[in-house]
Amino acid sequence: MALITPTPLPRVFNTAPGAGVFAPMTLTTLGASDTFEFRRGTGQILFLRNPTGGTLSPLIDGGDGVTVPLAGWGLRTVSGGYPAFAITTLQNKLLWLDTIPAFLQGTITITSGAGLLAGLLNPI
Question: Which domain of life is it from (predicted)?
């Protein structure tokens, strides 16, 4: 199990010393099960790239997510993780994590994504 290392992504108007609008992204090759830290409300982006020869469908799951209220629908289960999405050979996907916070409660793991390259962008 590997921890996906976050890459600080400077904001355009950040005046901190050494901050600019470009930053090299740290990529992690995913194994059978990998983790990352979610910081709600920060604009984190998960980058996934498939360099393998086949389509992969990773599953992103927070260990503490059970059910959440959904207006007009009642309680919805999130215990199975974020619904799998296919990433074909040489395709990139970006996932704005603030759009799926219900699935990112507790310890977050990515499974079924062995071989994917993952990067976690953290705006600073």
Answer: Bacteria
pTM (2 decimals)? Answer: 0.82
Residues 6+ apart with CB under 8 A from 121: 6, 7, 9, 25, 44, 45, 46, 47
* 37-70 tens-digit pLDDT: 999 998 899 999 999 999 999 999 998 878 888 8
Do the domain assignments include residue 16? no
List the one residue out of 43, 42, 45, 47 whose CA is nearest residue 30.
47
Contacts for 12 with CB less than 8 Å, ≥ 6 apart: 21
Domain count, the chain: 1
